[in-house]
Amino acid sequence: MSALRGHELYRFFHVGDDETPALRGVDVQLEAGKMVALVGPSGSGKSTLLACLAGLDEPDGGHVDVMGERLSRRPEATRARLRARHIGMLMQSGNLFDHLTVSSNIALQIELSGKGEQGSLLQRLGIGEHGDAMPSQLSGGEAARAGLAVALAADPDILICDEPTAEVDADTEHRILEFLDERRRAGCAILVATHSASLAQCADRILRIKDGRIVHD
Ligand SMILES: Nc1ncnc2c1ncn2[C@@H]1O[C@H](COP(=O)(O)OP(=O)(O)OP(=O)(O)O)[C@@H](O)[C@H]1O
Ligand SMILES: [Mg+2]
Fold this sequence. Notes:
The protein has 7 helices and 10 strands. The protein is α/β, with parallel strands linked by helices. The protein has a single domain, classed as P-loop containing nucleotide triphosphate hydrolases (Rossmann fold, 3-Layer(aba) Sandwich), CATH 3.40.50.300. It is globular and about 45 Å long. The relative contact order is 0.21. The protein binds adenosine-5'-triphosphate and magnesium ion (MG). The site of magnesium ion (MG) has 4 residues, from helix 1.
């Protein structure tokens, strides 16, 4: 059984009379203990795919299964429950509640999931001194790492990351890579959308997307 499976996913966006086919029949499977890098040009559909796989957005066609259970086209409460139980998600932005400190954001995630522990996540991501900070006080790279701490707080089976190293320096990128690798070895199924060649190199498999389709070499 795949940890996460997207089958024949389609997603269309409509703005006025224009239709953007963001996903056009995408298949993807994630296995426990493997990291897949999703690479492709800006606008190719990476964030759309990740949102559909995480159950934050609904595909217009196809379906998503998480740990053998149907995630797509279920009531929002069901999707939220499956997401909380199995999936950690780092979005391109907006991962933290603005009115809560970084530590409270993590505590809330743990409470919603009913598992996990605050532990030393922030220290290990190099932002141990920012636990009491409000999200608005963080730099872009610090906010990305705080978002990653929230995504990992409940020790998810599946981790979905949208450009986790977009705003960080080389040292921090290395630290995040080590961290993802550790999670992979602990059995987490990881999907990372990235423009970073060094991150993609660390993956077990690279999935290339262009104009909403997976391209095979
Ligand atoms: N909410 C939306 N409404 C309308 N169009 C959208 C919406 N979200 C995405 N799109 C369009 O869908 C396509 C895919 O966008 P997406 O954000 O998935 O790209 P991406 O590969 O993540 O790009 P980037 O590397 O810049 O993050 C783009 O053409 C984008 O303009
Ligand atoms: Mg994107």
